[in-house]
Amino acid sequence: MKNILLPTDFSKNSWNAINYAIQFFQNQKCNFYITHINNESAAMTSGMPPNLDNKDRDAIQLKHSELKMRELIERIENLPLNRKRHNFYTLLEKSPFIDGIRKIIDQKEIDFIVMGTKGASSLEKIILGSNTADVLTKVKCNTLVIPENATYIRPKEIALPTDFTLSHNLHILDPLSEILEEFNSALRILHISKYKEDLNKDQIQNRELLDEYFHQQQHSFHYSTESKVEIGIQNFVENRSINMICMVAKNINYFQKILFHSKVGSISYHTDIPFLVIHEKKESHE
After folding, report:
1. Does residue 186 come out as left (phi exceeding 0), alpha (psi in the -120 to 50 range) or beta?
2. At the topology level of CATH, where does 157-273 sit?
């Protein structure tokens, strides 16, 4: 049984992520925890009378969140659900966003977070503090990011960009391996470099380790020479009809080049293609 955290702010983007998650995990037994976190710093919502004390504000905010959550659950009930395998639970938290996410991950033993992002305009500034960016960089939990323009497509082709500098145990890739098995997907391992040059000894050894690790799954290695990593990925996504991009969060420099870069007009993969960001498993508390 997988435990899936679905944060929602009741927006179109978060609905898209919920819809995607339900289809993505359609054939697996799952507990879905649909969660709305009311950040205390955002509690002073517009439209409230200015003379209300904090207790009254909190009560109004809670009632509003409960209403929105009921409406969301009704909308989910109208989807073609796998009712034998899927359970849905709702959670309302009042805390700073990341604190609330971490608390639920620990309490509910969350395996995956699935959340939306607004796409191009927000990705230019994603490093500056959007909820999605904070989760990716501050929370050690496997996260599936669903851009606003993404619609569910069975992931037949998954890209794994890598610089072949493996600073992690290969078992960190187990969630990706499971997805490849589940969907009979093909993995396209992509190396992008600024200059056309041979791999060094360590990179060759790490490529061989990846080849061995994925030996039971369909996979292939691809090489591209581009001045910017994001341009190489864009070209690869378009040429290969990639349905998902996977990254290892621990390789932080490469990871940030792909997700947190300055705006480039021709780059659109992060508005259309889901991202799977995988983390090392958090050590259990003693």
Report:
1. beta
2. Rossmann fold (3.40.50)
Are 2-147 and 157-273 the same fold in CATH? yes
Quick one: how far is CA 43 from the chain centroid?
26
- Strand arrangement of the beta sheet that strand 143-147 belongs to: 86-94, 30-38, 2-7, 112-117, 143-147, 275-278, 244-248, 157-161, 186-193, 219-225
- pLDDT over 90 (residue 101): yes
> Among all chains, which residue has been given the structure tokens 């569910």?
152
Lowest mean pLDDT among 69-73, 231-235, 249-253: 249-253
Tell whether the model's pLDDT for residue 227 goes beyond 80.
no
Class of domain 2-147: alpha beta
Q: What is the pLDDT of residues 151-194, one digit of tens each?
A: 999 999 999 998 888 766 888 899 999 999 999 999 999 998 88
- As a whole number of angstroms, the distance between CA 241 and CA 154 comes to 12
Per-residue confidence at 35, pLDDT binned at 50, 70, 90?
very high
233 close to 261: Cβ distance less than 8 angstroms: no
pLDDT at 237 over 70: yes
Residue ranges of E strands in the chain = 2-7, 30-38, 86-94, 112-117, 143-147, 157-161, 186-193, 219-225, 244-248, 275-278
Q: How many residues does the chain have?
A: 286
- Residue 47: what pLDDT? 56
Decide the pairing of beta strands 219-225 and 30-38.
Answer: unpaired
Strand-pair partners of 176: none
Q: pTM of the entire structure?
A: 0.86
Q: Where are the domains of the chain?
A: 2-147, 157-273
Q: The tokens 């589940």 sit on which residue?
A: 182
CA distances from 85 to 28, 30, 108, 183 (A): 6, 6, 18, 17
